[in-house]
Structures are given as C-alpha cells and as structure tokens.
C-alpha cells in the first residue's frame, strides 16, 4: 500500500474526494477541510493499493492538484485493515509487479545531480578498485562495486529514454561522463602518488592477475552479465526493492573497469587501458539497453493487465445493473 497526502484547492476538493472514493483501489479516505496553510486548501488523506497508484496519481494530475496544491506519496510497510485488503484485491495484478511511474521518475531523477557526494563516492570507489586491480584482490573489487553510485544515473537515463525526457537524459549523461572522468583522473593521480612512495609499482600491473584480469579482457559474456544486471537493477527500482540493487552493484564491472583504465594510463600500458575502456563501454551500454527494454516490457504488460481488469469491472457492473432487484418488503405497522 501507498499513503497519499493531497493538498487541494477548496473549489476542487469535492472532485478529488469523489475521484478517490469511486476508485476501488483506494481506501481510508480522510478529509480535513481547511487544514492546509501553505499552499492553502483542504488536506485529503488516503491509502491506495500500489498496483492502482499510477492511475490515481495520473487522475489527480489531470485535475491540476499538483499545480496549486501538492501530492506526497509514502510507502506503507504494514496495514491491518479489511478495507485495505479489499482495495488490494480490487486492484489489478500484484503490487510488486506494478510500476508507479511518478515514483520511479522522482527516485531516479534525484540521482542525476552532480553533487559533491556523488563525485566523492565514485572517486573513492574507483581508487579502491584501482588498488584492488594492482593487488589482484577481488574483495576490494567487490567493495568498490558496492560503494560506486553509478547505477543511479544509469537507471535515470533508462527511465528518461523510455519517457523521452530530454533534460533528464542530458543530466544523466553528464553525471556519468563527468563522474567517470573525475574519478579516473583522481585514480591516475593516486596511482602516481602511491608509486612515488613505493607502495605500488608498474610490475604489479604487468604481473599475472588471474583473479581480476577479466576486467580488461571483454568478451561476449561481458555483454550478457551487464544486460542481466541491468534487468535486475531496473526491477529493483520499479518494485521498490533495494536488495536486488546491491546485487547489481557487485555484479557489474563499471567502476573496476574505469579504475583499470586509469591505472593502465598512469603506467602507460595502452593495450590494457583500451581493453578496460571497451569493457566499461560494453557494461554501460548493456545496462542502459537492459533498463530500457525492461521498462518497455513492464509498461506493455501492465497496460494489458490494467485493460483486462477494467474490462472485467465493466462487465461486473453491467451484469449487476441488469440483474433484477428484489421488491421491497412491506414493513410492519
């Protein structure tokens, strides 16, 4: 279930209440007249089954609620209510399969900003991965994948491509390009510094590294792994489950590949730098392609589920209206 807090102008409050009350996926409707002060208006509270939330939010936007009021959406971890159970049963499909586009767009859109935290995280992750490459330590590679924040802009780019939002596409591409350039530049500098103090040397890069040499030797499996990870990552975003996202971050060699490019450039090993750069591009492309295709399939499948559900409700209403009603019984005097 999702909890909605809706601030609506007084002249449209009744229309919003009627809309919410008529939707079988909505329950626990509460109206507090004049409770909202900034912006002014009525406060309407309700719970909506996740699988019916996208249609409700779309209808509220069509009423212009988001223009002079506001809509806040919160997740509800547990609801003990027969009315909530009926709302979930009345909504189409399952909540874990539903895509709430406003939620996904807002969640991923926040990941496109070139914040200091984002740049610092991707830089630290790349430096850690660079050390892991030289030491041939997979545990450091895994740690770098977990720290790396690059999946946020990748997910935002996939969503923006499906919805064709040009500003988000530009911001996502900029966050990825600038983030990796800054991180790789910092890793080159850190490699020179660590080399100067004698903690690492060029021979460590040229030595056999059986545990991490896959990072700079891309093959067909590189695309397969990146594609599957992109599907899993997008499903984790649309279903609001973070556990799968962690698995994606430790499965894709984006940050480690960028780190290997930087280390190879610092030690002037062009063949390894080229192979790592190709690995990075393959994984980035695979994740975006997988994310776009996953969203398109989800949108197509969910639209079919919704249409089927609406058709069933329409038939039920028609049969209920056509069935003869029992004659009223005479009351006692």
What does this structure look like?
With 333 residues, the protein is of the alpha+beta class. It folds into 2 domains: 79 residues, Alpha-Beta Plaits (2-Layer Sandwich); 194 residues. The protein has 14 helices and 4 strands. It has a 4-stranded antiparallel sheet with strand order 2-3-1-4. Strand 2 and strand 3 form a beta hairpin. Helix 6 packs antiparallel against helix 7, helix 11 runs antiparallel to helix 12 and helix 13 packs antiparallel against helix 14.
Q: Which features would summarize this protein structure in a list?
A:
single chain, 333 residues, alpha+beta, Alpha-Beta Plaits, four-stranded antiparallel sheet, 14 helices, 10% strand, disordered C terminus, membrane, DUF389
Q: Helix content range of the residues, please?
A: 55-70%
Report the average pLDDT across residues.
83
Quickly give the structural class. Answer: alpha+beta
Biggest sheet strand line-up: 2-3-1-4
Shape: elongated
Taken as a percent bin, the fraction of beta residues is 5-15%
Quick one: biggest sheet?
4 strands, antiparallel
Secondary structure tally, helices: 14
Low-confidence stretches: 328-333
What's the total number of strands?
4
Briefly, what is this?
The chain has 333 residues and is of the alpha+beta class.
Helix and strand arrangement:
Blueprint: E1 2-8, H1 10-22, E2 26-37, E3 40-48, H2 50-62, H3 65-68, E4 70-75, H4 82-90, H5 101-109, H6 116-135, H7 138-147, H8 151-163, H9 166-196, H10 202-206, H11 220-238, H12 243-249, H13 254-266, H14 270-322
Antiparallel strand pairs: 1-3, 1-4, 2-3
Helix pairs in contact: 5-8, 6-7, 6-9, 6-13, 8-9, 8-14, 9-13, 11-12, 11-14, 13-14
